[in-house]
Write a structure and sequence with these properties.
The complex is a heterodimer of chains A (324) and B (291). With 324 residues, chain A is α+β, with helices and mostly antiparallel strands. Helix content of chain A is 13%, strand content 31%. Chain A is built from 4 helices and 18 strands. In chain A, strands 1, 2, 3, 4, 5, 6, 7, 8 and 9 form a 9-stranded antiparallel sheet that branches. In chain A, strands 10-17-14-15-12-11-18 form a 7-stranded mixed beta barrel. A two-stranded antiparallel sheet of chain A has the order 13-16. Chain A is elongated, with a radius of gyration of 20 Å. Chain A starts with a strand and ends with a helix. The relative contact order of chain A is 0.17. The radius of gyration of chain B is 20 Å and the shape is globular. The mean pLDDT of chain B is 95. Chain B is built from 8 helices and 12 strands. In chain B, helix 1 crosses helix 2 and helix 4 packs across helix 5. The chains are: A alpha+beta (324), B alpha+beta (291).
């Protein structure tokens, strides 16, 4: 009863909906970067929405199945193949003992979610099966997959409709440029009015340094700081603060040059000022951005952020009811 | 000290108790986070105290951002009058200063440092006005430290030295962060010392290394079986300089489960501490050493 990893892909990891409750000790929530797609993948194979799946980034793994199961791939457009035969994304398909699941090249998006009926059985650590690689915690031995690893599935899969799918009208694509709505705040007052305007007007590009900890952006104008006398303990650079907590989605700009948006494996705190925070409704989108993607930060207020959050919840409910 | 509230998106409130670091700001932040925890406000998901600030993560589907903000402001009024007395513990952390591993690492990243011709300790000693590295190590290890935040990565303590401001050590971070730091490196940045709980990137100056594990996701280390993270805010730390043979011995003891950190329970009063810092620290040392 297992799956054998023949080739691991670039940085494939076991993820579920994450490990809340330990951020105050520097242990981040982890879990799928695109939670909507992760939930959808699970629904397609008849799992609970928070079952553990594989998160694939940029390049798919090659997996040999030592048992029959039902699989679905959501998120990025990366065509799954069973013994070489093409399958559809966002649609459940059967895989038989001895068959190999592999992937075509990535067409769009950045992260795909492979759900398997029953869900991946790795130990639950601090309430979650998610991998937090930096802390060598959770998932499969606290790390991304390597060739030769063997994954187990939970029993109880089965009785699942093959061919169950999610309409593309219910899915979500980043626009071009990608738009990330953000609420200004935190240390926003540290930059000049003109810089604040530039920050939201400029087109940024996703930098190659983009991972589960955070996404870096390049190409906008450097920020200009308001003069201050450095507070004791902050450090002399104008972008330094006395080390504080970093919200998920917060946008820090070390040295005022390249914004970094922290994501599910966020460092929990540090000494760089932040200009605001990407709203919860747009966090999933970040997980689907490839390096070099043109991106615009869009200023919103709290009311808009809450409305967007509500809209995302409605969308998820539509998916849930589409199987009724 | 003026408290500043700001929303971090629709799921966080960031509360800056003071722009600058002080034990007063830390204690006010600690009192407020304790009060938030005790209030058991529905919708509060995570309470994260930091050095001179804190952060609440909440679910806006359960409590509206404005309602939570109003509650925090009420709690702040009460915290103003709180006695800053905590029951805590003092822990001795052995440190092998000028060890070969951090030395190798700092040489590897020399072009990212303010002073490419010296070591991190030589640089820190010089800019803080110490005649020698030994004198600087004494200053770093003779007086205790307060754990004022745990985070960055899993279980990493930020520590603030319990001396008056004139004696606080301050050093800038590396010009550009390193991509590597040995596990259990004792580092320094701004006015904080830290212990890197895991190997990885880092920007703090490197002074030495401790053989005492402080994070164990496998929970196999004898004193980390209950919980994988050793430190919590409010802990008091005393560094003890050790030599190579002692370092090796402790490593061997950790390996066989025989190493037990020296820990004593103490009560800390901020006002008593402030009225006589050296005398108070002396008493803490007596408590630690059990005489």
């Amino acid at each position: 009863m297992a799956i054998k990893v023949l080739a691991p892909g670039l940085a494939t990891s076991v993820q579920d909906l994450g490990r809340p409750g330990y951020y105050h000790l520097g242990i981040p929530i982890s879990g799928g970067m695109d939670r909507f797609s992760l939930r959808c993948a699970n629904m397609l194979v008849g799992n609970e929405e928070d079952a553990a799946v594989l998160e694939v980034v940029f390049m798919g793994p090659e997996l040999e199945f030592l048992q029959d199961t039902v699989v679905a791939v959501t998120g990025a457009e990366i065509t799954p193949k069973v013994d070489g035969g093409l399958q559809e994304t966002w649609k459940s398909f059967k895989i038989q003992k001895g068959q190999v699941l592999s992937f075509d090249y990535l067409k769009s998006g950045a992260r795909a979610y492979i759900a398997m009926s029953g869900g991946i059985d790795v130990p639950v650590v601090l309430g979650s099966r998610s991998t937090y690689s930096l802390g060598a915690l959770g998932g499969f031995q606290g790390r991304v997959l390597a060739a030769g690893d063997e994954l187990k599935l939970n029993d109880g899969g089965g009785n699942v409709a093959i061919g169950r799918s999610i309409a593309d009208t219910l899915r979500r694509q980043p626009g071009n440029p990608a738009q990330l709505r953000a609420l200004p705040g935190l240390y926003w007052h540290r930059i000049s009015e003109q810089s604040g305007k530039n920050f939201f007007d400029d087109i940024w590009k996703v930098a190659p340094e983009a991972d589960r900890i955070g996404y870096r952006f390049k190409g906008g104008q450097p920020l200009e700081f308001v003069d201050r006398e450095a507070p004791f303990g902050a450090g002399s650079d104008p972008s330094n603060i006395v080390d504080g907590c970093y919200p998920y989605g917060s946008i820090q700009v070390p040295g005022g040059t390249e914004p970094i948006v922290l994501h599910r494996d966020a460092v929990s705190g540090g000494g760089y000022f932040m200009v605001g925070t990407v709203i919860s409704a747009d966090m999933d989108l970040i997980g689907q951005l490839q390096p070099h993607t043109p991106t615009k930060f869009v200023e919103v207020d709290m009311e808009t952020a809450l409305k967007a959050r509500h809209d995302r919840a409605t969308q998820l409910n539509l998916v849930r009811h589409s199987f009724d | 000290m003026k408290t500043r509230y700001s929303f971090g998106g629709d799921e966080h409130i960031f509360v800056e108790v003071d722009e600058e670091m002080s034990l007063e700001a830390f204690f006010k932040s600690l009192s407020m986070t304790n009060a938030v925890r005790d209030s058991q406000i529905a919708g509060v998901a995570e309470i994260c105290p930091a050095n001179a600030s804190f952060q609440i993560k909440f679910d806006p589907d359960i409590i509206s951002p404005d309602a939570l903000l109003a509650k925090l402001k009420t709690i702040e009024d009460d915290a103003e009058h709180a006695d800053h007395i905590i029951k805590t513990r003092i822990v001795e952390v052995p440190v092998y200063y000028q060890d070969p591993w951090t030395h190798e690492t700092l040489m590897r990243f020399r072009e990212r440092h303010q002073d490419p011709n010296g070591t991190d300790l030589e640089y820190a000693a010089k800019i803080n006005g110490y005649d020698s590295v030994d004198a600087f190590i004494s200053a770093h290890s003779e007086q205790p430290w307060f754990v004022s935040m745990v985070g960055f990565v899993a279980g990493l303590p930020f520590m603030y030295q319990m001396v008056d401001r004139a004696r606080q050590i301050q050093v800038p971070k590396y010009l550009r962060p390193r991509t590597d730091t040995p596990k259990q490196t004792v580092g320094y940045g701004g006015c904080f010392s830290c212990i890197y709980s895991v190997r990885g990137a880092g920007g703090y100056q490197m002074f030495g290394i401790t053989p005492m594990p402080i994070y164990d996701p496998e929970q196999e280390i004898s004193y980390l079986k209950e919980f994988m993270v050793f430190f919590k805010p409010g802990d008091i730390v005393k560094f003890k300089p050790i030599d190579r043979p002692t370092y090796d011995q402790i490593l061997a003891d950790v390996e066989v489960g025989a190493f037990v950190p020296r820990i004593q329970s103490v009560t800390f009063s901020l006002s008593e501490f402030q009225s006589d810092i050296d005398g108070y620290n002396q008493k803490l040392m007596e408590a630690l050493n059990g005489n």
